């Protein structure tokens, strides 16, 4: 191998792959700095959980209805899912409670403001120490917005607290 190293192909110049052609979790990985596709999956589920906690069940259902695209094209069964599968909570109790409780907004101890949103993502998602939580959230938002209609993008924006709404709009 040392005597005959691999050569770059001169037949096809390397061309960057457009974001729209990358599967969802690869987009999240590329834009967030997450080192692992499984981290991208796990943290995306947490971001989606916190987003759902802010929304009514009806609003969350409208978002889910638009997320039926493959999240990753792979033979690894643990990654063979749709983006809508990431939107569902893997914990059956949490999934049930998120459907029957009101949105966590307004006064009270359960209000989710921007700081609590980021705190939950960082702590519930097992975020690696070397990545910026806001960049990870922005990457997930960007990949999600690529899958949603303009109406859904606007609707989601109305549910998000101030700083998180700004990250959503910048994504």
Write the layout of secondary structure elements.
Layout: H1 24-32, H2 37-54, H3 57-65, H4 83-87, H5 92-100, H6 114-124, H7 133-145, H8 150-159, H9 162-170
- CATH third-level topology: Globin-like
Shape: globular
Q: What is the CA-CA span between the terminal residues?
A: 44 Å
Count of all domains: 1
- List how many beta strands DSSP finds: 0
CATH class: Mainly Alpha
Tell me about the biggest sheet?
Answer: none
**Low-confidence stretches at least 5 residues in length (pLDDT < 50)?**
5-15
So, the CATH homologous superfamily? Answer: Uncharacterized conserved protein DUF2267
Characterization of this structure:
This protein is mainly α and 171 residues long. It has a single domain (19-170), classed as Globin-like (Orthogonal Bundle), CATH 1.10.490.110. Helix content is 54%, strand content 0%. Mean pLDDT is 82; it is low at 5-15.
């Amino acid at each position: 191998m040392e005597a005959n190293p691999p050569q770059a192909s001169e037949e096809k110049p390397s061309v960057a792959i457009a974001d729209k052609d990358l599967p969802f979790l690869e987009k999240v990985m590329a834009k967030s700095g997450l080192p692992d596709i499984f981290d991208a999956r796990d943290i995306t589920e947490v971001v989606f959980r916190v987003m759902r906690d802010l929304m009514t069940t009806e609003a969350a259902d409208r978002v889910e209805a638009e997320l039926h695209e493959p999240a990753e094209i792979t033979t690894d069964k643990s990654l063979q899912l749709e983006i809508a599968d990431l939107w569902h909570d893997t914990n059956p109790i949490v999934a049930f409670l998120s459907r029957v409780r009101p949105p966590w907004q307004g006064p009270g101890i359960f209000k989710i403001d921007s700081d609590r949103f980021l705190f939950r993502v960082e702590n519930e998602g097992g975020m690696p120490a070397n990545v910026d939580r806001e960049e990870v959230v922005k990457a997930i938002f960007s990949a999600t917005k690529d899958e949603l209609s303009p109406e859904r993008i606007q609707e989601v924006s109305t549910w998000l607290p101030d700083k998180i709404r700004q990250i959503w709009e910048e994504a």
